[in-house]
Design a protein that fits this description.
119 residues; 11 strands; 7-stranded mixed beta sheet; 0% helix; mainly beta
């Protein structure tokens, strides 16, 4: 069974930085894409950043401040978040998609890690 676990969430002051990490475990034959989503209280979940091969996409609100990276061999992804703002406060989720060891597709979301930015 493919699992995804996030880490690195914390409370920081406005203007600060955090680096989130995501680790994928289980039998995997292909890791096609990894992405970060976030959900603030009372709001819809939104895509923060996605990486698939050389393709990278960012949500409009984080462009220029966040950077996503991934290492398929290590089955990890990171989200470097700079110049954090109070509106970045949310639970951040990692998502991994691909084919598992049996050739079946998987699309797994982790349990999330809390990021709180104080003003």
């Amino acid at each position: 069974q493919v699992q995804v676990v996030e880490s690195g969430g914390d409370t920081v002051q406005s203007g600060g930085s955090l680096r989130l990490s995501c680790a994928v475990s289980g039998s995997i034959s292909r890791l096609s894409a990894m992405a970060w989503y976030r959900q603030a209280p009372g709001k819809e979940r939104e895509m923060v950043a996605l990486v698939s091969g050389t393709f990278i996409k960012y949500g409009e609100s984080v462009k220029g401040r966040f950077t996503i990276s991934s290492d398929n061999a290590e089955k990890t992804a990171h989200l470097q978040m700079n110049n954090l703002k109070p509106e970045d406060t949310a639970v951040y989720y990692c998502n991994a998609r691909g084919l598992d060891g049996t050739g079946r597709g998987y699309n797994v979301l982790g349990r999330g890690t809390q990021v709180t930015v104080s003003s």
